[in-house]
Amino acid sequence: MNAAENRHAVVWLLLAQLLAILPLVAVLPLWIIAVWVASAWWYWRIISAGWSFPIGAVKGLLALAAIAGVYFSFASLFAIEAMVAILVLAVILKLLELKTERDHWLVLMLSYFVVACNLLFSQQIIDVLLSLLQVAALLVAQQTMNRDKTAVTTMLRSVGLMALQSLPLMLLLFVIFPRIGPLWTMPLPGGQGKVGMSDSLEFGDIAKLSQSGELAFRVRFDGELPDLASLYWRGLVLDEFDGRRWSRNTWSARNKMSQAALSESFVSYTVTLESALHQWFYVLPLGKIDRDDVYYSAQHQWLSKKPINGRVEYSAKSNFDQPLMDDSGGQRQNLQLGSRSDNSQARALAAQWQEEFSDPRGRVSAAIAFYKATPFVYTLTPPLLGQNNVDEFLFNTQQGYCEHFAGSFVYLMRAAGVPARIVVGYHGGEFNKRDGYLLVHQSDAHAWAEVWYEDEGWVRVDPTATVAPSRIRLGAEALLSRQSGYLQDSPLSLRRFEWATRLRYFVDNMNYAWARWVLNFDSNIQNNFLRGVLGEISPQRMLIAVMLVGGLPLAIVAFFSLRLPTRQSEDLAARYYLASCRALARRGVPRLAGETPEDFLRRVMLEHPVWYEWLAVQTRLFSECSYSLAGGENYQRSLRKLKTYRRPRKWLDKSAIKALEGE
Amino acid sequence: MDIFAQVIQEISKVVLGKDRQVRQALCCLLARGHLLIEDVPGVGKTTLSQAFAKVTGLDYQRMQFTSDLLPSDILGVSIFDRNSNAFHFHAGPVFTQFLLVDEINRASPKTQSALLEAMAEKQVTIEGETRILPAPFFVMATQNPWFQSGTFPLPESQLDRFLMRISLGYPDELSERQLLAGGDPRAIIGQLRALLSAEKIITLQAMVDKVEIRDSVISYVQRLIAFTRQDSHYAFGLSTRAALALIQAAKAWAMLEGREYVLPDDIQFLLEPVAAHRLKPAADNQNDGPDLIRRLLSQVPVVV
């Protein structure tokens, strides 16, 4: 088929191609759409107005211009977006040399890759539904290659049928196909646009984070939901301080007194982390994670052995009452004050406490009392701080967010000789009543302090609680919802409306289920699942599973479709006659669908005379019932005989026929 | 020997080895249809029609269609008679019982459609006055399958007016030898007996209507036409008129076979003459009429 002759197929090709490319405008530059419009128009002129295909030099120039365009848009050719852009441009420009049927197929097949590329950037249900639509359009476009003037509904029906037929195979592959780890890890997408905790903290970082309505993780508790105010999702311990910036101690010895110490009374829960770009997990203290690829550091934090890429699910157990002991002897380090700032006023105040109280507990309560006594303002938009940020915050601006309180508190404690450190994580969460799980958003990000007592280990102190007690009880949302800036550019601001909240929970439920059951099906879960089903994972068992899941349905389908049609006829005469024919077919003498009974009889007489006489009787009876007798007693008698003699007999005894004929 | 066998035997005296076509022509007449014979010149189209006219005992008119033929040349014209001071209608050749039209595709579309209208309505309207054609009215038309210059191929809608389209083909070796050895067939035509008459034919046509066709056969016909409408090999499906024609022809055929009921075999036998000229292959399909019919016969189940 020459592509130009089948306009129908061309229109569908262009439509399907546009549909495949369009959702990518979110990540690709808009000029790619302009390139598509120009190429599609050019191609249309080629086939409708007799324009010529571009010569090689023009095509070469176009390709170079496209690559240059990608380079200028992304400043690189090797970012994932740039690579996708190059693929998309190749698919588009291929239109300008679409001469043969083979080219047509090539563009269609490449468009499937474009559809798959959409899923690189997001895999929510909505994206999957969209890609189903795109695949349907491509399948229709594929069908138009081979048939013309067919209604779209007919084609959609066969597309649906094909999709249904491929469904079992898809499910089978989903379950058994090995999950190959990434060969290289590529930051997706872009890096800097992603919201989330980083492994260092400066004043203002968490305030920025709290303006995002994005989900950080979901938690499903096995038992009852604990009090929201007590949920401190401990993520990262920041114990290095250079005077301005808190950062993580990269020397993290593995904690020897690890999980084994976890006592009996614990809560267990499952956390589903949204795609994260870090290496640590969030647990309630003191927690234990059931996974092989994680380790426990001396700071009581859970770290992944390799960078986390994409969504992660883990189950954990926690005992809130167990102390965070530390026998590594590294607490000296938690006294350093850094060289990048001076903060003399704060040091002086701390020195005063150190003189006044010999016991660390006394110094801590003095500091808490100080925070209570000072009229601090809790705000999302604190003023910028200068060189000596702690001093400026404590004695000058007195406006801050949780990291200001935690940071200044830890600074004061260290200056007063009490080992202290910052912990960042999330606090509280939002309970989804519909499905019974906890949603923790980026806006729940929180920073608090931990101080070291020789006898008790690391004890949590949340100075923010002294300033705005309601924030601790209700969570960031309740406190901040009246302030400007909080979630100001997020669709979550719709939370004023009851129905909007319910809808949001519903959508979130769907996404959670999707993430839980589909996206998180990693090699860990896969192995567990297969082991659970098969007992052990061995080639033989896998083979048996594949045979059972894939082979058995195929065999059943084959059995039913390869058999002669067995649908029972409404017409009794036809039913008995067809039964006779089937019985004869099983003996190697099949009747063709388009063969009339008389024709069949003639053929049997010539080719298989042994059945002839019996079939002659059956044919005569059937002919009477179906074509000549309109009913009545004769009809009933013929029908009865037809039924009685419907099994093939080798008529060797002529008298038997005579007897039958005479009945 | 029944009357049909005698008729066929009589015609076979001049048209040798063409029993099947003769029977089909007779079937067409009994089913009140019209016959189109498509074949190369010189295989006996005219001989068949003349013998047929003679044996059936019908009034016979023969017309040679040419490109300058006018509708009035077929239908007739009113001429002013000065003596009686009134118009008098001079009936055209169409006012006959058996009309042979040679090379129908050489006349202009206007003339063709005048004839075809007469065939469908069995009446003609001239100058506002409707005139009933004689009964029975049977048209046998011939056309050359190769469209030469100066011909106007009949469009599908007009082909549909013919109940059957058959071709004679070259005679087999034995028949041809007898033909060559025998005398001028036209001389023999004069000696043929008229075995039927207009009255007998009308009676037989009425008997055709009484031939029984059962639901199982009707649903087979429905499956056939439904298949042509769904399958992508056909440019368009068979019409309801085609299905009616098929059933009517099958009834006549059953009567010719001496049966009072229709078998699917009758439908299958008549499918090509009745349906082939009404089917057109889809654009990208090179199959022609016979292939399309074979496809129908093999794909559509007879008994369900």
TrEMBL record, chain A:
UniProt key word Acetylation: no
Pfam entry (one): TgpA_N
Keywords from the UniProt entry: Membrane, Transmembrane, Transmembrane helix
InterPro entries cross-referenced by the UniProt entry: Bact_TGase-like, TgpA-like_C, TgpA_N, Transglutaminase-like
Domain Transglutaminase-like stretches: 394-465
Highest taxon above the source species: Bacteria
TM ranges: 12-44, 64-93, 105-122, 158-177, 542-562
Protein name according to UniProt: DUF3488 and transglutaminase-like domain-containing protein
From TrEMBL, chain B:
Boundaries of every ChlI/MoxR AAA lid domain copy: 228-292
Listed InterPro entries: ATPase_AAA-3, CbbQ/NirQ/NorQ/GpvN, ChlI/MoxR_AAA_lid
Occurrences of domain ATPase AAA-3 (ranges): 34-164
Top-level taxon of origin: Bacteria
Name of this protein: MoxR family ATPase
Organism, as annotated: Zhongshania aquimaris
